[in-house]
Amino acid sequence: MNKPIATVARTNEILKRFDLNAKKTFGQNFIIEPRIVEKIAESSQCQDGAAIEIGPGIGALTEQLALRAKHVTCYEIDERLKDVLSYSLEEYDNVEIIFEDFLNCDLKTKVNELKEKYGKVVIAANLPYYITTALLFKIFEAKVPLDAITVMMQKEVADRFTAKVSTKDYNALSIISSVYYDCVPVMKIPRTIFNPKPNVDSAVIQFRVKEQPLHIEDEQGFFEMVKACFKQRRKTIYNNYREYLKDSELAQSILKEAGIELSARAETCTMEDFIRLKGVQDEKKSVR
Ligand code: SAM
């Protein structure tokens, strides 16, 4: 039986065997602390179900997921890792690796297929930092029936999800994620447990499906509107919103009717404010 992939010795052996250097452009920082990957897998709720991992790297977290889940599907952008992963994960026959940019994958079809076969589907990942936000938007906006999403990211980005209204961290992602999920901090991670060592610390957070998800009629339109209101944080909500609607007069009257001050900034608006804003917007636009 091999040592866990996340041990320093095994990681070095794999990197050396394949003459592999971490690629900065793909956000590659490999975890070299077995207890961390064990804890992520353990808390991911993958037991007795299927897990989807974004960016397996050399397989450190994948291995721990494979030991617990019935099936693991990974999306990896770096084709150099084909031989590496066949070697490092050769003991596991419940792992499927798809070499594709996760941003381009058909997540909905994959999740539905796994859900039908295994009953439960979760996402677990140590996300590449350069596209954390885009990956999360993709997951939240896909509206797929995931049971939990457990992800490691830069600590500062993680803070945004637990941010309260009117704080500097509060942003469009805080709002969009909370339509479906409650966000729970899992653990903080020091930068020292990666090879190579990044310049920032990390945190693992978990999104758990809300018992009563908010009902929003046109979610895609709601997400677009929220993102537009936060587009330039220095600007007032009115200035961002009128650019989005391309109609200053209409923007003014919708905001007023929704009870939002024109001088307010998006970060001072609550979920209820945005839901009201969208409601008035739909009404007004339909009579035009
Ligand atoms: N899971 C490994 C670990 O924890 O040691 C590696 C994590 S590393 C931070 C991020 C991984 O995501 C890398 O393997 C990288 O090649 C992969 N990656 C980067 N961009 C991606 C994308 N758009 N789609 C899929 N994988 C991606």
How would you summarize the topology of this molecule?
Elements: H1 8-17, E1 30-31, H2 34-43, E2 50-54, H3 60-68, E3 71-76, H4 81-88, E4 95-99, H5 107-118, E5 121-126, H6 132-141, E6 148-154, H7 155-161, H8 172-180, E7 181-189, E8 194-195, E9 202-209, H9 219-229, H10 237-245, H11 248-257, H12 271-286
Task: Kindly describe this structure.
This protein is an alpha/beta fold and 288 residues long. The chain has helices at residues 8-17, 34-43, 60-68, 81-88, 107-118, 132-141, 155-161, 172-180, 219-229, 237-245, 248-257, 271-286; strands at 30-31, 50-54, 71-76, 95-99, 121-126, 148-154, 181-189, 194-195, 202-209. The strands form two sheets. A seven-stranded mixed β-sheet has the order 4-3-2-5-6-9-7. A two-stranded antiparallel sheet has the order 1-8. It folds into two domains: 8-209, 3-Layer(aba) Sandwich (Rossmann fold), CATH 3.40.50; 219-286, Orthogonal Bundle (Helicase, Ruva Protein, domain 3), CATH 1.10.8. Helix 3 links the parallel strand 2 and strand 3. The site of S-adenosylmethionine (SAM) has 22 residues, from strand 1, helix 3 and strand 3.
